[in-house]
Write a structure and sequence with these properties.
Layout lengths: L2 H20 L11 H16 L5 H8 L3 H13 L3 E5 L7 E5 L1 H25 L1 H26 L7 H10 L12 H13 L5
Antiparallel strand pairs: 1-2
Length: about 200
């Protein structure tokens, strides 16, 4: 590894740490946190599409976990910005909707976000932003592939162990099984550690 590559790697690490530490992101409407604003914008987007707004779908769009979203929804409900409803046919099923005030926050959050992005793009330049998007997509692709590789069950080294491994069902297509949160982590641990390979 030459010095220029080492310097670039160090600079990239420092920049990502600075962005994380300084929380470099679009401004947020006064009175809510960035996470709360992001959640309300996700709910507002789903409301516009006309589909039932389930917390799981909100978590997917806002790129958060169901447990973290539950805490955010609780805080937004206490602030009078969202309402949660139990469906009549299934008491356990919950839908979410914005209050009038919540819609105002979502609208303001989107305005601030768009204004911020336009300013950044004007400063950086359209060509450089296009390169940034392309590069970030590659970085995301790398991590997606790494996660998929880590989740895939290991192949047994010994033929006899391979046969037992196959019969045990551990090698079945993991996509056929639904995993979320800790269940997914536990399944990956089982599939990796229980494989006969050392």
């Amino acid at each position: 590894m030459d010095d220029s590559f080492a310097d670039m790697k160090r600079e990239l690490y420092e920049l990502t740490q600075r962005m994380r530490h300084d929380r470099i992101m679009p401004p947020t409407p006064q009175g809510v946190t960035p996470t709360e604003a992001r959640t309300m914008m996700a709910v507002d987007k789903l409301e516009a599409s006309g589909e039932p707004i389930r917390p799981g779908r909100v978590a997917e769009i806002s790129h958060t976990t169901p447990s973290a979203l539950s805490q955010t929804l609780k805080a937004l409900e206490e602030k009078g910005l969202i309402e949660r409803h139990r469906t009549s046919d299934d008491y356990r099923a919950v839908t979410v909707s914005l209050t009038d005030e919540g819609r105002q926050f979502a609208s303001e959050g989107r305005r601030l976000h768009n204004e911020h992005m336009e300013q950044v793009m004007a400063y950086v330049g359209e060509e450089d932003m296009a390169h940034l998007v392309r590069i970030l997509k590659r970085v995301v692709e790398f991590h997606d592939r790494a996660d998929a590789s880590a989740a895939a069950p290991s192949c047994p080294c010994n033929p006899e162990d391979a046969a037992a491994y196959e019969l045990s069902g551990v090698g079945e297509d993991s996509a056929a099984r639904e995993h979320t949160g800790a269940d997914a982590s536990a399944s990956r641990a089982i599939e990796g550690e229980d494989a006969p390979c050392a």
